[in-house]
## 1
Amino acid sequence: MKKLVKTIAVVALTFGSVTFSQAQKIAHISLDSLITMMPETKTAQDVAQKYLKDLEATVATMQTELETKYKDYMEKEPTMSELVKKTRQEELQSLNKRIEDFKAQAQEDYQKKYAELSKPIYEKAKKGIEAVAKENSYKYVLDSSTGNILFSEPGDDILPLVKKKLDSMPPASIPGANGATPKTPNNGTNGGGNKPMPPKPGGGK
């Protein structure tokens, strides 16, 4: 009888250990590598490349126009009146500014487009990671390329418990504070031996 009880106890202990181990299972994956391997990434890159080429073609057209007008200006400049010369110079400056503005806007536009194309790929990858994690009882899945947590099971928020624990611990030593604990001013003044309050940001007194 004692042998049977001992056997049951060992089995129960082993089962409990296995269950605890499984509940704490942690996996890792390189999200960057996963994204690179997905066929949708190649499709998104092709679309993004075409979008970029269209922007570059527009810049090239504008640049050609500027170069042509500048060459014409240089050829005719000796015979131009001051009014015509000034007008042509302003035209060249305006066109050059439009080109620079377009380049800056095109860069921002391209980044937004790439993010738009990448979003559904990352969403699909995340769904796949979550599905595998749940199927294999992983508690956490870490991104080995960045260290970020890609998946975690819902858990208890221990903020109140940690805050209570911190309140019972000695104050942290703040460099330059000389270990002094700020006192609360009496009646809104700095009387009673309290130190003056620091000025507010922005130069206020």
## 2
Amino acid sequence: MKHKKEHPPYSLIETNYYPIFLNLNKKKVVVCGGGKVAKRKIISLIKTGANITVISPEISKGLEKEIEKGKIKHIKRQYRKGDLKKAFLVIVATDSRVINEQISKDAACLVNVVDTPSLCNFIVPSVIRRPPLTIAISTSGISPALSKSIRKELEKLYGTEFSSYLKLLKKYRISAMNFIKDAKKRRRFLKDIGSEKIVRVLRMKGLREVKEVVNELFKKSVVNNNLC
């Protein structure tokens, strides 16, 4: 009687990741793989202004347009040793475990092998984008499904109005630096326009009401500053 082959018990090593946002503008990024997963990663990377090189015998439809626009470079072949020279970041999404392991081993930089945390030195979180607001959620690789569920919940809490409000705040921050000379009053104003109270007004009454509140706070701060 043949015995079933026993598999070693599954275990997940918990890693205490250090959360960070990277500036990839003009940095060399190499993406190994050209399938749907790689395409999704590449589309996100294009928005960062990175210099992207894709290494893959074939690429997904849609990426050809990005090549024509000069957004990405394509090396039409399998990965070779030396392809990662001067790379700042590497994303690996091939369908070969052997190739993925080799790239991870060769990389002397930031490397992420999709769906294989053990081959990565960083993982990509679930992300909500309300530019310039970015919210990243991670369960340290324990449950990507839970990260996704939390992301969906937070997407309802942080709508596009937060994007509009942050663009408004940018203008008021510049004005505060120029016209509120007293450092203490300036800090108070900047704290007030980013307070929980403002967030509640934004959610309940909308952007127009918040604009009026912020404008009054600014006028008050400038007047008080001139009286000093």
## 3
Amino acid sequence: MTISIVIYFIIRVFWKSEKSLYFSSLLAALSYASIYLITYEVLEIIATIHFMVTGLSLLFLFVAYNEIIIHERKVRRIKKGEILDVENFPIEKGYKVVFKLLGIGLIFLSLALASGFSMQSVFTANITFKAIFTFIAWFIYVITLIGIKFFNFPTKFATRSLFIAMWAVLGAYYMNSYIIGL
């Protein structure tokens, strides 16, 4: 996961183009999938799909959160009059791109929930905590997407809710690791 995020950042920092977001997101997702398949042995197809879509949901949640922060900073700079070349910064298009990233992340998170429930027949404490935190993140994700799409959800609230959703997914991961370690 970390390598994929670093690849995303490297491309975004050194390639200043509109297409760099799409390219860096795609390359980060492909690198995560290929590194996962190379590193881990495929024992069961459902488990492999579950771990891959969980990682991809984290990746796209992180990318969407990062992009909305970058976008919000640029909007603030425009409001302060610090950016003079406003024509090269389409505000609405930036929000639409973040919305697409959120949609992709929501699809992966939904697949992670579905595959996680389908591969478990016995629910232990760690699986229950993981499911609760993941469902909380999924719920926040859905509320944010619906709010942005239909109710003109303010960006500062969308940013905060994405931050909470990201921590809920990370909490599910770390809570699971902590409980298994006990």
